[in-house]
Structure formats: C-alpha cells, structure tokens
Design brief:
The chain is α+β, with helices and mostly antiparallel strands. It contains 23 helices and 14 strands. It has four domains: about 45 residues, no CATH class; about 190 residues, Cytochrome Bc1 Complex, Chain A, domain 1 (2-Layer Sandwich); about 200 residues, Metalloenzyme, LuxS/M16 peptidase-like (Cytochrome Bc1 Complex, Chain A, domain 1), CATH 3.30.830; about 80 residues, Cytochrome Bc1 Complex, Chain A, domain 1 (2-Layer Sandwich), CATH 3.30.830.10. β6 and β7 form a beta hairpin.
C-alpha cells in the first residue's frame, strides 16, 4: 500500500493523474472462462471497451535483483516476540524462479518444511512459521515469519534458521524432498483447473508472464528442475549480503551475527540426482470412473446401516471431489472445556495404521488434504482430492475417525500453539476488542467464545482426556457425510457403506448446553496508546430454531454491514467519513443468537462515530 508518507500525501488530483496514465487498454487484458458463445462475448467486449483510449506507458522497472548487504534491525515494542528472515524471490519469468520456489518450500512453507518440523513440532520453540510472498511481475522477497513461544527461545530459533539456510546453500534439497515438493506444486496447479473462476485466474497469471503455453506444460517445467539448478540458484540469490533479519520484542536484542553467518559459502557443484517422474496432467485419470456429462445438478440422500446420513451432490465433469464429515460434537457438548478441539485436531496427527509422517507423505503424493474446522455448534473434517483418489481418501477418513493414535508430543505442540496465540491476542486490537466485548455480554466464564477453552483449561488437558472423549463418539449417531463430485452414484454408495456403516445405537446424542452469565455492565471504555479506536456494539438475537426469523436476521445483517453496499458502510464511511472499517454480523445456534456491529475509527473522531 506504500508508506505513511505516500498514503498521507496522496491527493485526488494525483490519483486521477495516475489513473489516466496507467489504467489504459494497452496496459490491461480481460479473461473469460466458462460456457459462452465466443462471437457473442466478443461483441459484448467490443461494445464495452472499444472507446477506451490508449496512452504512452513507461516500460517496467528492471526485474533483476541487485547485490545488497546483510542487514539486521530490531524494534523494542510491547507484545509477543516476532522474528523475520527476508530472502530474495524471483519473478516467475526468471529461469531460476521454480528452483528458488522449491528451496523456500523445503525451508519454510507448510508443515513438511524443515523449520516447521524442527521449531514447531519437535522442539516446540515456535507457535508458527509462515511465509509471505512479496513479488509479482518484478522480483521481490520471501518473508519467513517465526513466532517464538518464549522470549528466551529466540537465539536457538535463529541458530536453527541459519543452520538450515547454510545446509541448503551447501547441499541443496534431498532428492526425496524434491520429488514430494514437485508433487505439492503440481497438485496445486491441477486444482486450479477446477472451476471457471480459478481457471480464469490461471490464464490471467500466464498472460502476465507472457507465456500462455505454461497453462499446459507447467508440470513438465516443474519436473525438469534438478538439484544442481536449486544449488546454483540459492548460491546466487540467497547469499548473506542479500538477506535481512528483523526482531521485534519487549527487550533490546543484538544477536551474534558473526556466528550466524559463519557458514558463508562458495558456489557448490552437487552430485545429487533423482529420477524424473512423468508429469501429471489435468486429464490424468485412475481406475474409478466418472459419470458422463449431464446438463443438470442432482442431489442424492441415503442413510447407512448404523444411522449415518449421506448427501451426494453430483456436479457434471468435475475432476475434483470435495467432502465434509460433519458432527454436532463441539464445545457446547463437551464435558471438559477445550477437549473437543484438541481431540479432533490431534486425530489428524496419526492413526494405528499411519503415523504423522506417513499421513503427510501420502497426502502430498496423492495431492489431497483433510483438515478440521471448529464452529460454535459443529466440528467438520473436510477436504478435497482428485476424483480417482476418493476411495483411498474415504478409507483414510475412516481410519482417522475410528483408529486415531493420541500422541502426547503432538498434543503438547497443539497446546503450546494455542496458549501462545492467546497471549498474542493482546497485540491484535481487532481480536482483543472482540473478546473484551464478548466477555462483557456473556460473562468471563462461558463456553461460547473459544473452542480451545481458556488458558487454565488448555493446561489441564491430557492424552487420557482425549481418548475418553473420543470413546464416547458413535459415527452413525454423531456424524453426517457430504460428497461433491461427478462419480457414479452406485460407487459413492458402495464406498460409504464399506467405510462408514456401523452397528446402530439407542443412546441419545450428547446435548448442546449453553454456559454463560449475562453481565450487568453495558458500557466499557479502555484506553490504550494506539493509533486506532475500535467500537463494538451488540446484544442477543433470535436463535436458529426460529428458522424464518433466523433467515431474516442474516439478511438484515448483510444489509446493515455485510459489504460495500451496506447501510453502515454507506453512511459511516462514505457519507460522513467517521470510520474506515465497518461490519455487522449475526451468529446463532439452536437456542441462542447474538449480533454485533463494529467500527474502526481515528481516535479524535470517536465520540462523533459513537453517536
């Protein structure tokens, strides 16, 4: 967005001048993807844009990366510690961009990366490792952001960070890791063909890159990358003089930079090679067949032996299957605060047949994902896969549901991350303000705000608690399954009966119990030295059991503050300029509903906005 100075100095005149110069047809393109008549849509485009006038444009800035110097900076600031390593990143038209992409994935992207495995899972020094990509048509940087769980961990974290950086500079990426990372990249590319919006984005990206052929040959390009090219790229672009390190925390900190950079490397010629696999293509298929194209969308419902309900949504010619295993089990039904969150999250870290590493490897090889989501009144195991892998994915979903292994080390990792996230909440005004408002309405002791429970609840949970909670489940009674795809209905029914049938039970499902206490105070003002003020206003509303009123309230919430056309946006922001961010939301469960409105304002106009 620029800097405080560039944004502050922007005027209507300067913005209009920029628009007139750069928003021109010779600097733009339009992509259409979907079911349309090419001649008709050409006429529409021509009528809409033929009068748009061209202008002279400056050529793009030099896209090459220049040598710099190693930089370290620190900022003393109240709040949890953060570390950031900044590495060069190449634009996609650069011949080494994919090699550097593989290197940063191996180092820091995802749960399979070196830094996540060591710092989050094994040593539990960080609550997260994230990577932000800041580049486009021009080369830029990758920012590796690390969140120390304790301030005293920062030296060990930096030692690990630079040790892995040096290993990649010296040896590149092991062949087994290269093969899996290539699968990650290619599967993501294959998913981009699913849906007209995703495909339009894919085409648009390659128009930017001036290489439409990449839409079909991208997999071959990725498969062609070998370790020699990776080592060459990192030694050219990840040299110490081109990287930067930043620290933010409560105390002054100066690391031993000489020690961190002691592995300064000269170019290295590796001997590591790997067998190149045949690249996957969007047309690849497996043994399972898809239905022939139809013109309509169909829904099928059936109940399995044992009671599980299944909904199958047939969508013609869909190469990707989506699935959700949903349950009423949630924070409202648990017997110990946070137990449902940690039990369901921990189930994805290993089964009796597959440990965590197996699950990670298999999901990357076959290109599917299964994740868990926690809502106030439900828990969802959901994901997507290539249609030919649906039988295997459903069998694995059964494993996860019925035969999990509750590993103490992984539980401790999840608990440490949850506790650290709660500590960091005070550093994020929006989330902190919401939690303060929520406690004001429902009291400090409630089971509505956090799926994890509070800090004391998190610390009290152990593996035995998770095992006991899981043993109380019954898949036929407590779960429903939804699948979206273009497979034969008979195949879907056979797979579901094979993996999710069970003996029926006469035991009633666990009830939802709301635990909260209305507070007497209805107004709180808390002063902090911040450059923004946040106002929350809200109260009780109709429950979901009143379906017609519930639907009406959702429509009302959208009209009042849902998006750019909402009433609050039009009045508070656009008409009067009181607030720069506005929202109105409504949430409900069977026996309770609540609404809240919020605004972010400049402190000096807070009284006006409140009125």
């Amino acid at each position: 967005m620029g800097t405080i100075d560039t944004v502050g100095n922007a005027t209507r005149r300067s913005l209009r001048a920029f628009y007139r110069k750069h928003y021109r047809p010779n600097n733009a393109f339009l992509v259409a993807s979907g079911d349309f008549d090419p001649d008709q849509i050409y006429d529409i485009f021509h009528a809409a844009f033929s009068d748009w006038k061209e202008s002279e444009l400056n050529s793009l800035a030099d896209a090459s990366l220049h040598h710099g110097r190693f930089a370290f900076d620190s900022r003393k600031r109240q709040g949890p510690e953060l570390l950031a390593l900044v590495l060069p990143e190449l634009n996609e038209r650069h011949q080494d961009s994919e090699a550097l992409h593989i290197a940063i994935r191996y180092l820091a992207i995802g749960k399979s990366s070196l830094l996540h495995k060591e710092l989050v899972e094994e040593r539990k020094l960080c609550s997260f490792v994230k990577v932000s990509s800041l580049s486009g048509l021009l080369s830029g940087v990758s920012v590796v952001l690390l969140a120390p769980i304790q301030p005293r961990f920062k030296t060990a974290i930096m030692d690990s960070l630079f040790r892995h950086w040096a290993e990649i500079m010296r040896e590149g990426v092991p062949s087994e890791a290269i093969a899996l990372i290539k699968k990650d990249i290619i599967h993501s590319w294959l998913y981009s063909f699913d849906g007209v919006e995703h495909k339009a984005n894919l085409i648009a990206a390659e128009v930017f890159n001036e290489d439409l052929a990449r839409i079909q040959n991208y997999a071959d390009l990725v498969q062609s990358i070998e370790n020699a090219q990776i080592v060459k790229a990192v030694n050219e672009f990840w040299q110490s003089q081109r990287i930067a390190l930043f620290y933010q925390g409560n105390s002054n900190f100066t690391p031993d930079l000489g020690k961190l950079l002691k592995h300064e490397l000269s170019p290295y010629k590796p001997t590591i090679r790997h067998n190149r696999e045949k690249a996957l293509t969007p047309e690849d298929s497996g043994a399972i067949s898809r239905l022939s194209p139809k013109t309509d969308t169909e829904y099928y419902q059936f109940t399995l032996p044992g009671g599980m309900k299944v909904v199958y949504n047939y969508v013609p010619q869909r190469p990707i299957c989506g699935f959700t295993l949903s349950s009423h089990l949630c924070q409202l039904s648990e017997n110990k605060a946070g137990i449902n969150y940690f039990t369901s999250a921990l189930m994805l870290y290993g089964t009796e047949q597959h440990d965590h590493n197996d699950l990670m490897r298999i999901s990357r090889e076959k290109g599917f994902n299964i994740r868990v989501q926690h809502h106030l009144d439900s828990t969802l195991f959901r994901g997507k896969c290539h249609y030919q892998h649906l039988p295997f994915v459903l069998s694995l979903l059964q494993e996860i549901l019925l035969n999990p292994v509750f590993n103490k080390s992984h539980l401790n990792m999840l608990k440490a991350a949850a506790l650290d996230n709660m500590r960091r909440e005070r550093s994020y005004p929006a989330s902190y303000a919401y939690s303060k408002w929520f406690s004001q309405l429902f009291g400090k002791e409630n089971n509505l705000l956090r799926a994890t429970g509070e800090q004391k609840d998190i610390r009290a949970i152990n593996v035995e608690d998770c095992q006991s909670w899981h043993q109380s489940w019954h898949i036929g009674r407590d779960f429903s399954l939804c699948i979206v795809g273009s497979l034969e209905l008979s195949q879907i029914r056979d797979l579901c009966e094979q993996y999710f049938s069970c003996r029926p039970t006469t035991i009633d499902p666990l009830p939802h119990i709301l635990s909260y206490q209305k507070e007497s105070a209805n107004h709180i003002k808390q002063y902090k030295r911040k450059d923004q003020s946040i106002i929350h206003l809200g109260g009780f509303a109709c429950p979901a059991s009143r379906r017609k009123d519930n639907s009406a309230f959702h429509v009302l919430a959208q009209a009042l503050g849902g998006d750019l056309s909402s009433r609050l946006y039009a009045i508070l922001r656009e008409k009067y300029g009181y607030a720069y961010q506005i929202g109105f939301d409504f949430s409900s469960v069977t026996d309770l509903g609540f609404w809240y409105a919020y605004v972010f304002v400049i402190p000096r106009i807070i009284e006006t906005a409140s009125g």
